[in-house]
Amino acid sequence: MRPVLDDGRRSWDAAELDRAVFAAVGALRETGARVLATVLDNTPAFVVLDEALLLSGCVHVPLPLFFTPAQVRHALQAAGVDTLVTNAALATGWPELAWTPLTVAGEALMQARLRAEPVVLPAGTAKVTFTSGTTGAPKGVCLSGEAMRRVSRALVDVMAPLDITRHLNALPFSVLLENVAGWMAPRLHGATVVTLPLQQVGLAGSSRFDAALFQAVVQQQQPHSLILLPQMLRAWCGHLVKSAQRAPTSLKLVAVGGAAVGAPLIRAAQDLGIPACEGYGLSEGASVQTLNLPDAAGGQRPGSAGRLLPHARLRIAADGELEIAGSLFSGYLGDATPVPEWWPTGDLGRIDDDGFVHVLGRKKNVLITSYGRNVSPEWVETALRGQPAVLQAVVFGDGQPALSAVLWPLHPGASDATLQAAVDAANATLPDYARIGPWTRGRAAFDAGTGLATANGRPQRAAVWHAHADALDRAPEPITP
Question: What is the DSSP string of 279-310?
Fold first, then answer.
């Protein structure tokens, strides 16, 4: 019988995992927990608690290890968390709490009761996932179990031709994408999920990624599928080129999401043996809505976000905004506004004649140049990141005659001439009104620690602008986050 979970030390078949889940349900009922938050690494304990909480009717609030203490405090208070579970090392960060031991799936954990003010949650809430957003205070998205199951079933259906029976977790389970597509869907399909502590797969914090270590783990584990963020795919490709290697032939699908990827990176990855396919989703839709697939499962169009999954409905509003239906969230924490049948995503896009969805950028980020041309900065940023020398790019130009950019090179030692050549190459693919004029190097790392990016790698545009406006020869101006 194929194991459903492998943590590198032992494997669990379905019956063993079910017994661990039922044992956790009993333990949860004894605690009287109503809303339980976890701060855990990727281990069997997380998935066992996740399933046990769903079965017991408790609300699960998974919090990423990369959240700041302030973000964790905000989430605990906003969700009315009454029980906190973490490991012994992390528990020392809350010395004021009375901790008691808790064993889940053979792992020694610690639990503490919190003095929480009860919070009214939307009916049917099973999970509260916090988006890092563009500000310091994460927003709580309330999801029902059925919404997440719809997405899981749809993923199983469309990927059936690929016969994926071994998935390696490369993103945190506390991130909804990996939770739904990297655990719930493979579990439903009966695949083996290989889950290792995140540092063992090369991921530290929200944005530090060791591509050499990752390649070694993928070679060792021989998975059929992975889920990556674009910056992880870019770094992996760079390592493979530098080390004259190729991706393992076991891979059948490497789904990439979280931000725009772009056709050049997808094609570069595929040339290295990585079956990279871009998708699109959002927390308010319980994760994945569209996905490109290898030809064996329906084909793909690099540069697009793929076709709709079976559970999803999508339409284009009069102003070009994507609106979705089919697996919507139940509401935001602290907001009693009813969720409409069609949810405005905040993203601009189009659907081509073959049904492929193209996401053009955030509606609120659209720049209007002094010549009156509307430009989505994400479009230009994707073109810049498509150049091998560029790791990250943030584009500005509202009210200006030409666009400008802040660039972070893939290799810190890259010369200005190399970066200028990358800008020139990207400009050659863009119309004149969307080309980059002045640019400058990033003065600090593009990550949450410097305040220039959110925890999941999206730019903090106002912070980037104010830190670099003088180098772009413009006076700082406020930018709505």
Answer: EEEEGGGTEEEEE---GGGT---BTB--EEPT
Output the pLDDT for position 231.
84
Tell me what the mean pLDDT of segment 147-173 comes to: 97
Whole-structure pTM value: 0.86
Each residue's pLDDT tens digit, 198-231: 999 999 876 689 999 999 999 999 999 999 998 8
Mean pLDDT, the chain, integer? 92
> For a pLDDT cut of 90, what percent of the chain falls above it?
78
